[in-house]
Specification:
This protein is mainly alpha-helical and 144 residues long. It contains 5 helices and 2 strands.
Amino acid sequence: MKMNLQTLTKDLCAYNLWANHELVKQLTEKKEGTAADSIELPHINQKLSRLLAVEEEWMQKIRCKETRSPEERVFEGAIDALLKDLVVQSESFLNYVSELSEETLKEKVAFDISGGGDLKMSRYEMIQHTVGDSTHHRGEIVIS
């Protein structure tokens, strides 16, 4: 099977969805003496909110539909709602990316980063960045 940019990008987003499913599983499994026993810990909610915000922000940039205000959107709510939103958002990301053509993935998109000015990057590079950033934020959620 010939690997192309579409396949690689779709696989990357499928990995992101899988990793978020694994995070949900780890956070919801009941293990005595673990974070799952006190799942409402504020730092976990904060990190999940940040993970959701990062993915949403980059999806808006990739779609050329930045509509958020300069202030970062904060996802609030119970941990189970945050976890559900994370999986739904990752599924939506995968579905969107799966429909992109090779030309669309290579297309350079202009966007603004607060404090960084106007930038231009291909959608593929933006998708790579999004998954890398999501991986970083998942890693910050410590389950002891």
